[in-house]
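Thread amino acids onto this structure.
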């Protein structure tokens, strides 16, 4: 059967993509952020996963406010890239894995998750930037991908507990896949930030650090929050932490930390990376 070897979580701020494209990894402003990924890149180089299931939030390329699913799973042979307005470059398509995608979709339906099934999807910065961070020398990387979009744009948002359960259901789906492949689950977004309104620029370092520790040792703690409580603690866009929680839910073994890094600010946002091994 397939094995989930670990979960990776990463911020996906649009300015990261421009920094990569403009070669600013060694600039004083950016270097602490990019340096925080080096141990994760070493782990990926050793493990060589075959499949990446990427939990992210769509920013209007596929879904808008008039038609916005809570959960959507891609089932395409490839995923094109587009710039939704940040001036990011457009790249060749990312490789899909429709056979495993349909298996995951069927398994999620059997586990009572009502999801949108997408045979065409365009990827924005929330998917592209973490992929560029984790595979900086390949664009796009050779790894097969399965995108899973989670609504963090239009209320009502899914409860953290529901996202954690989604991750568990994805873990069950992967465990029942018949071929021996190594899978990494990637949760993108966050950490605390708010881009608009009276709290624009809001960052909650204490809450962010608690989340990173809880994801390692006590993910159930984060399931006790409501979506509105997440907004209060992490900012309107900081609610993206639900993608991290979903990724953690997919780990079914004994979890250990490979590496973590936390850095503020990047473009008025708290940025973090966390790598967990599924032993």
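Threaded sequence (279 positions):
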């Amino acid at each position: 059967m397939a094995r989930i070897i670990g979960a990776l979580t990463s911020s996906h701020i649009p300015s990261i993509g421009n920094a990569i494209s403009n070669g600013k990894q060694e600039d004083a402003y950016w270097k602490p952020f990019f340096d925080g990924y080096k141990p994760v890149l070493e782990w990926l180089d050793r493990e060589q996963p075959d499949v990446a299931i990427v939990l992210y939030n769509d920013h209007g390329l596929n879904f808008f406010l008039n038609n916005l699913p809570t959960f959507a799973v891609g089932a395409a042979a490839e995923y094109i890239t587009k710039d939704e307005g940040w001036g990011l470059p457009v790249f060749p398509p990312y490789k899909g894995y429709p056979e495993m995608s349909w298996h995951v979709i069927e398994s999620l339906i059997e586990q009572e998750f009502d999801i949108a099934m997408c045979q065409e999807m365009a990827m924005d910065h929330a998917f592209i930037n973490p992929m560029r961070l984790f595979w900086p020398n390949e664009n796009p990387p050779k790894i097969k991908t399965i995108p899973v979009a989670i609504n963090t744009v239009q209320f009502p948002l899914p409860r953290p507990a529901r996202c954690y359960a989604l991750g568990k259901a994805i873990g069950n789906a992967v465990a029942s896949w018949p071929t021996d492949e190594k899978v990494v689950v990637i949760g993108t977004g966050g950490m605390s930030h708010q881009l608009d309104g009276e709290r624009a620029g809001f960052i909650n370092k204490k809450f962010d650090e608690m989340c990173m520790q809880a994801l390692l040792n006590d993910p159930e703690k984060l399931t006790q929050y409501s979506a509105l409580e997440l907004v209060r603690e992490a900012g309107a866009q900081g609610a993206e932490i639900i993608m991290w929680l979903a990724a953690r839910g997919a780990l079914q073994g004994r979890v250990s930390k490979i590496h973590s890094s936390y850095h503020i600010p990047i473009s008025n946002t708290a940025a973090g990376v966390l790598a967990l091994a599924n032993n």
